[in-house]
Amino acid sequence: MKNKETIVFFYKSLLDAGGAERLLINSYLSLKKLGYNVKVVSYLINEKALFNLQINRNDFIEISSRSFLCKFMELCRILKNYKEAKILCDSGHIDIYLASVFVKFDYSLHLHHPLFMSFNDFDKYSIFLKSKYNYWVSSNYGAIRFNDIKGKLTGFDRIFINIRAFFSILSIKKAKNIFVLSKYAFEEKKSLFNVNSKIICGALDSNIFNNTPQNSIDSFVTFEHVILTIARLDENKRIDQIILAINSLVKKKYNVCLIIGGKGPEYQSLKNLVEHLNLSDNIFFVGFIKEELLYSYYALADLFVSIDWADYRITSYESLLAGTPVILSNEVEYDDYLMRNQYVMTCIPKAKELGLLLEENIQYKNNRSKVFLNDYLENFTWDNYVKQMISFL
């Protein structure tokens, strides 16, 4: 008999097909499979953020009012109708906090990115977190850039940031549960807000463990070594450093290519860099890769590279499922089992260091043990993820 308990997700604006959106959609699908009644509420829903997956569009409620006040009032009305539901906010935690003040309900937060790995979160510059700033700005390779941003803030910026941070911090402290994706994020939230988060991770559909490549990708058969990266093309992904690393291999006469999957605001500047380096015959932009082709691309590659500035990467687990080793940035601890079996390697996220690691590994094809790998990856299915989440909710 199916469980008809209702779970409501709030995601402020579903705009693009990124990692946070993928987590939301796969959580929705797994919860539906388990028999839950699931609704997703958002101020804006762009169809491409739904990944062309088989969802019930009636479960996705878009608040189409023009003004923010009208949108917020409509959000309160909707959540009032679902007061008995489990409410989980994946984006827009201040909105959920303020709605809970008016409507009186409990909520949980999913905080996808640590403050000190995000350009989009300005709470770190507020007076409320001043005593912790210097420690956390030195906690990872990329965070030093926040000092430049902080130094350029105007007086008006600082007033706005502190007002917003006041409500942001209240929303975090009031949450019934806080879900994060890494030990780094857990420790950061504990230090900054004195809250205990729950670390739960999902990355894989349980139906794809017996997958084999269904599509032949013949465009790259002339290359001896195929490197793959898939990401939203923005500055946090450091794809320019991957391009420069490939350039160093081409100069050493390696028959290598880089496949770049994804779209984003940095596309043209990355394309210009490739052309400037005369790498158009070695680096290929394939755009958004459809779900039915993803596994084939992962299986095609000798190595998957993701040195983006993040504490967790869904794509790395998808690559491993295809048996393709992964290179990540060294800013966050990674799984001991996968590191020990050399399916995951890390490096400083700069072109020189990456180039050397790529050169070391492209000669190491098919020599890694796959024993127990799939069994181990079962721990990271979406079904297991939502079961853990429900146990806390």
Structure report:
The protein contains 15 helices and 15 strands. With 393 residues, it is α/β, with parallel strands linked by helices. It folds into two domains: 211 residues, Glycogen Phosphorylase B (Rossmann fold); 172 residues, 3-Layer(aba) Sandwich (Rossmann fold), CATH 3.40.50. Helix 1 crosses helix 15, helix 2 packs across helix 3 and helix 3 crosses helix 6.
Number of helices: 15
Radius of gyration: 22 Å
Categorize the overall geometry.
Answer: globular
Write down the overall mean pLDDT: 91
Top CATH class of the largest domain: Alpha Beta
Number of domains: 2
Brief summary:
This protein is of the alpha/beta class and 393 residues long.
What is the topology?
Blueprint: E1 6-11, E2 13-14, H1 19-33, E3 37-42, E4 44-45, E5 60-62, H2 68-81, E6 86-91, H3 93-103, E7 108-110, H4 130-137, H5 146-151, H6 155-174, E8 177-180, H7 183-193, E9 198-199, E10 225-230, H8 239-251, E11 256-261, H9 267-276, E12 283-287, H10 291-300, E13 303-306, H11 314-321, E14 326-329, H12 336-340, E15 344-347, H13 351-361, H14 373-377, H15 382-392
Parallel strand pairs: 1-3, 1-6, 2-4, 3-5, 6-7, 7-8, 8-9, 10-11, 10-13, 11-12, 13-14, 14-15
